[in-house]
Specification:
Blueprint: E1 3-6, E2 18-20, E3 23-24, E4 33-34, H1 39-51, E5 59-61, H2 68-71, H3 77-88, E6 92-93, E7 95-96, E8 99-100, H4 104-123, E9 129-132, E10 146-147, H5 154-165, E11 171-175, H6 182-187, E12 194-201, E13 224-229, H7 235-253, E14 257-262, H8 279-297, E15 301-305, H9 314-326, H10 337-341, H11 350-360, H12 363-368
Parallel strand pairs: 1-5, 1-9, 7-10, 9-15, 11-12, 11-14, 12-13, 14-15
Antiparallel strand pairs: 2-3, 2-4, 6-8
Helix pairs in contact: 1-9, 4-5, 7-8, 7-11, 8-9
Bound molecules: 3-cyclopentyl-N-hydroxypropanamide and zinc ion (ZN).
Length: 369
């Protein structure tokens, strides 16, 4: 069993500019410091995988840049040209809350291309599964606008590649980032060949997006599933959501490849959400995805990075995911785990179960088509 590791130093050079949290510093009201989506958190994840000894056991994968043609499977020519032109000057904003510096276009191409590289490695059986630690993230990016720190829709571009260049019949994208995967949802809204599933904190970001009744349209009706979970949800709610909704949906859909959009921002320590996941929760979700992938698509699983803003804690959640993918445990234990396991409300609560049941009701539609 081989697990791939894909990252690149340039991912950490993507410049989100000075800010206060997720708002740009304006020289008047917001004192400048590092933006929430800074390289530090992801670099620390990479470094912990290294220090744990696990990195040396993974198969290193070198990302290539996505081509314009590959980007245009999900984005408009107009939008691509806008990003390219801004990047060639001093950078700018890709749309909504998505700052980038000079050269940001090329780094975003490398992020989308990284997911393509990871998918090719799994489809060519170079590796069984991969973690792609890319940056900038992608799941909020829409065809003609960047949103929520995302420039190009990396996971969606990967899914299109798997379908159109590699000829797969069905692909599933499972998004456990704590925010709604609105871009992925939008891109495949009318497409029954790509099942999109997003679990997220109810009504966090984008506003008024990711409701349980958004199930896709046209021939794609039934092939988009949202699982909005109440703020405060912990491991009990997450595991229940994945066991009762995500896993059955994947088994019914029977994809040829599963892509996980792995935000690590549902953790107990994340500043941009209010959930209570911990590293062992992420380990359990990863194991569940591996079990399903083993049953439906010969284990073909590509996990690609999205958000995650707790500098101290993202590394331990990320390490747990990578350990699970590699079927191993390093010598490094999560030093925070006992604190978070003991937190009140980690077990499934009735109002969380109700939210999961509402999402579960959409499974009958999936089974019917
Ligand atoms: C974008 C602006 C406010 C919340 C923020 C969310 C970014 C993210 O991690 N998306 O997955
Ligand atoms: Zn997020």
């Amino acid at each position: 069993m081989a697990t791939g590791w894909l990252s690149h130093e340039l991912y950490f050079w993507h410049d989100t500019r000075s800010a206060g949290g997720f708002l740009p510093a304006d020289g008047r009201t917001i004192e400048p410091e590092a933006h929430s989506e800074s390289p530090a958190t992801k670099r620390r994840f990479r470094n912990l995988v290294d220090v744990s000894g696990l990195l040396a056991k993974l198969v290193p994968l070198e990302p290539r840049a996505a081509t314009e043609e590959e980007i245009l499977r999900c984005h408009t020519r107009d939008y691509l040209e806008r990003i390219k032109a801004l990047s060639a000057e001093n950078g700018g904003d890709a749309g909504e809350l998505t700052p980038f510096g000079p050269g940001g276009y090329e780094i975003a191409l490398l992020a989308a291309g990284g997911v393509i590289t990871a998918i090719d490695a799994v489809l060519d059986a170079t590796v069984d599964n991969v973690y792609a630690l890319t940056r900038p993230p992608g799941h909020h990016a829409e065809p003609d606008i960047g949103r929520g720190f995302c420039i190009f829709a990396n996971a969606a571009i990967g899914a299109k590649h798997a379908r159109e260049a590699r000829g797969l019949e069905r692909v599933a994208v499972v998004d456990w980032d704590v925010h709604h995967g609105n871009g992925t949802q939008k891109i495949f809204w009318e497409d029954p060949s790509v099942l999109t599933i997003s679990s997220h904190q109810d009504n966090n970001y984008p506003p008024d997006s990711g409701h349980v009744h958004e199930v896709g349209g046209g021939t794609g009706e039934g092939f988009n599933l949202n699982i909005p979970l109440p703020s405060g949800s912990g491991v009990g709610a997450y595991v229940a959501a994945y066991e009762r909704v995500v896993a059955p949906a994947l088994r019914a859909f029977d994809p040829d490849l599963i892509i996980v959009a792995s935000g690590l921002d549902a953790s107990n320590m994340d500043p941009l959400a209010r959930m209570m996941m911990h590293s062992d929760g992420y380990r359990q979700l990863t194991q569940l995805m591996l079990d399903v992938a083993d049953d439906v698509c010969e284990g073909r699983l590509v996990v690609e990075h999205e958000g995650g803003y707790s500098s101290p804690y993202v590394p331990f959640c990320g390490l747990a995911v990578v350990e699970a993918l590699a079927g191993t445990k390093s010598d490094i234990d999560d030093p925070y785990l006992d604190f978070f396991k003991g937190a009140g409300g980690q077990d499934l609560q009735p109002h969380q179960a109700a939210a999961i049941e509402a999402a579960e009701a959409n499974l009958s539609r999936l089974a019917a088509v």
